[in-house]
Design a protein that fits this description.
Layout (H helix, E strand, L loop, with lengths): L1 H12 L5 E6 H8 L10 E9 L8 E7 L4 E4 L13 H5 L3 E6 L6 E9 L7 E3 H19 L8 E8 L13 E3 L2 E5 H6 L2 E3 L6 E7 L1
Antiparallel strand pairs: 1-5, 2-6, 3-4, 3-5, 7-11, 8-10, 8-12, 9-10
Length: 209
């Protein structure tokens, strides 16, 4: 009997803990609707949930948008972030984003990250391409600031993020800190070509208050 109980405990411990988390689609729509102009078409919002006690994102096993009439599956990326479509009809239908979290749901707070779309992640960039991405971020923060733009962060460059398990490398220029490489405006302005030995997993803006 004791052996059987031990086996049962081992079996149950092999399953990961999963808890559903439901968030109104409107909470995500309020962000993604801000990226509708041509000036920000290279950017997206990637959503995740930050663990309040640990320096990591909560593990998401699946995600979907649910209305009374349909269920739309969402792709959860390897870094436990996902994107949502920009659809006012879903907002009007009071859609819910339902996630299976492999953590306690009350330990996970929403995390919103502005980054470039995946098609802009590569190993070789021209000066024009770097300038284009920088202009996209600049346009976003300028639009959000409006007449209060002096209170918004200033875009000073680009930050290239690499997988934490990738091999260290020496970049042509820029500031390297761990798995991040920062290019400021002056470096982007003087870069005829920018080559990387590995592809970044995301590009964000370098901002300063």
């Amino acid at each position: 009997m004791k052996v059987n109980v031990l086996i049962m405990l081992l079996v149950f411990s092999s399953f990961s803990y999963s808890e559903p988390l439901e968030v109104e689609y409107a909470s995500f729509y309020s962000h993604v609707k801000k990226l509708q102009s041509d000036d920000t078409q290279a950017l997206r919002f990637a959503f995740g949930f930050q663990h309040i006690a640990n320096n990591r994102l909560c593990k998401i096993s699946s995600a979907q948008i649910v209305t009374q009439k349909q269920t739309l599956p969402l792709v959860v990326e390897a870094n436990d972030r996902f994107t949502v479509p920009t659809d006012k009809i879903l907002k009007m239908a009071k859609a819910i984003v339902v996630l299976d979290i492999n953590d306690q749901a009350n330990q996970c707070d929403i995390s919103v990250q502005l980054e470039t779309k995946p098609q802009y992640l590569k190993m070789h960039y021209s000066q024009d391409e770097l300038g284009y991405l920088l202009d996209q971020y600049t346009a976003f923060f300028d639009d959000m600031g409006g007449f209060l733009s002096f209170m918004m962060p200033s875009v000073e460059g680009l930050v290239f993020h690499f997988d934490v398990n990738s091999k260290p490398f020496k970049a042509e220029f820029g500031l390297q800190q761990g798995n991040r490489l920062t290019l400021n405006r002056e470096e982007i302005k003087n870069a005829k070509n920018f080559n990387l030995p590995i592809k970044p997993i995301r590009i964000t803006a370098l901002v300063e208050k």
